[in-house]
Amino acid sequence: xxxxxxxxxxxxxxxxxxxxxxxxxxxxxxxxxxxxxxxxxxxxxxxxxxxxxxxxxxxxxxxxxxxxxxxxxxxxxxxxxxxxxxxxxxxxxxxxxxxxxxxxxxxxxxxxxxxxxxxxxxxxxxxxxxxxxxxxxxxxxxxxxxxxxxxxxxxxxxxxxxxxxxxxxxxxxxxxxxxxxxxxxxxxxxxxxxxxxxxxxxxxxxxxxxxxxxxxxxxxxxxxxxxxxxxxxxxxxxxxxxxxxxxxxxxxxxxxxxxxxxxxxxxxxxxxxxxxxxxxxxx
Length: 283
Ligand SMILES: [Zn+2]
Prior knowledge:
Layout: H1 2-20, E1 27-28, E2 33-34, H2 38-45, H3 64-71, H4 78-87, E3 105-108, E4 111-114, E5 117-122, E6 127-128, E7 156-158, E8 164-166, H5 178-184, E9 192-197, E10 201-202, H6 221-238, E11 243-246, H7 247-250, H8 266-282
Parallel strand pairs: 5-9, 5-11, 6-10, 7-9
Antiparallel strand pairs: 1-2, 3-4, 7-8
Helix pairs in contact: 4-8, 6-8
C-alpha cells in the first residue's frame, strides 16, 4: 500500500509539474516544438489572458469539433479556398501573400521545418485616458483604416472592421515574442507567424505607456472571421494545420512578458474556423 501511495504521489507530482510549467519550459529544442500533440499544445498555448497578463486557466477549454479539425489533415483544397476568396473578393496579398508560396521555415539539423505556430497578438494601442471613443468598431475610427498600420512588427494587422494589412509576407521569417528573440535565438526565426489584432487600451489602472484595460468585447466578429481565414490560408500554405497560440502564453514567466491578447473569446474564433472549413468543403 505504501508503494502504491508513493507511485500515486509521484504521478500527482508529475502532473502538477506539467501543469505548473510555462510553455517556454515545455519547448523541446531537439524537435523545435512544444511537447504533446497539437491539441495538447493548443490547450496550453490558448489559455485565457487576464488583465496584466495573468494566466490562471490550467488549460484552454476548446470546442471538441475544433480539436477534431486540428488533429486531422486539411479537408479542403487550394482550389476551394481560391474559389471562396474570389467569391468574397478578398485578395491573397492581403492575407499574407500568395497561396502558391510556402510559409517561412527554420533549418534544424539540416532539415526545413515550416512554421508551426500561429501567434495571436493585440496591438494594445492607441491608449485612452478615460473612455473609448464610441466608434472604435466602425470605419469612421481612423485606426480601422489598414493603411494607418505600417510598422513592421508582425506579419499582418487586422482591424476591428475586418480589414487586413500584410506588412510581412508569411513566407518571410519574423520574430515578435521574447521567447523567440531572448530565449531561442535566431534558430527560431521562421517557426512562428504573427498576427496583430487592432485593440485600443485604456487607463487607469496603469498609465499611458502601460494601459491594461481592453474593450468588452475585446474583438469584433469581423476580426474573428478574418482571423480564421488567415489561419486557414497559412495552414493551406503549410499543408497542415498550424497550432494557434496567444502571445502572452508564449512568453509566460519570461521577464517583461506582454499581456496580449486581452478579452479574446476562444469559442468565437474556433466557431469561425469550424464554419469556414464547412463552407470551403462545400465550395
Ligand atoms: Zn504581442
